[in-house]
Design brief:
Elements: E1 16-21, E2 35-40, H1 41-45, E3 49-54, H2 61-73, H3 75-79, E4 85-90, H4 94-103, E5 111-114, H5 119-123, E6 127-128, E7 139-140, E8 143-148, E9 151-157, H6 168-174
Parallel strand pairs: 3-4, 4-5
Antiparallel strand pairs: 1-2, 3-8, 6-7, 8-9
């Protein structure tokens, strides 16, 4: 895997990921899956202050019970610090990320980004091989970063099995 991106470096442009678009009138319809939309990194990061946090997998225990809910519950506090977008990324497909967001009642508070091929997490140097745990050879490490207009201004990487430095609460203390 690559060396992890560091403060002062730019988010690589042109890397494509997916989000699921769900029209407002379908937001509460559990049977509507949504329409996958390909977006490039500059669509997410250019001209904005973005908090991006990465998790090993949707519906996994720490990710579902602590990491994602923490950012949902703290969204107003984070946005009040001048953040434009809070985004969650995982190496899952767009339908899984959308379903996970619905299950966790994310609403519009957190953009759910599907990096199904692990392209962005690999480019950021935050990928890991979890094939020994039957989770695939490319998964995201648990991390959080803040980027301003594509430039990383803060990044924290969690030690394996830990959940301390990447929580919403830990991030708010750094903003």
């Amino acid at each position: 895997s690559r060396v992890m991106i560091s403060v002062g470096q730019r988010i690589p442009p042109g890397i494509k990921v997916q989000v699921l678009e769900i029209p407002a009138d379908k937001k509460d319809d559990p049977s509507f899956c949504g329409v996958p939309k390909v977006v490039a990194t500059e669509d997410i990061f250019a001209g904005k202050k973005v908090v991006l946090f990465g998790v090993p997998g949707a519906f996994t225990p720490t990710c579902s019970e602590k990491h994602l809910p923490g950012f949902v519950e703290s969204a107003a506090s984070i946005l009040a610090k001048g953040v434009d977008t809070i985004a969650c990324i995982s190496v899952n497909d767009a339908f899984v990320m959308s379903s996970w967001g619905k299950d966790r009642k994310v609403g519009d508070k957190v953009m759910m980004i599907a990096d199904a091929n692990g392209t962005l997490v690999s480019a950021l140097g935050v990928s890991q091989d979890l094939s020994a745990r039957y989770m695939g050879s490319v998964r995201s490490k648990r991390f959080v970063l803040v980027a301003e207009d594509m430039q990383v201004v803060y990044i924290a990487l969690e030690e394996p099995g830990k959940f301390e430095v990447t929580s919403a609460e830990a991030l708010i203390a750094r903003l």
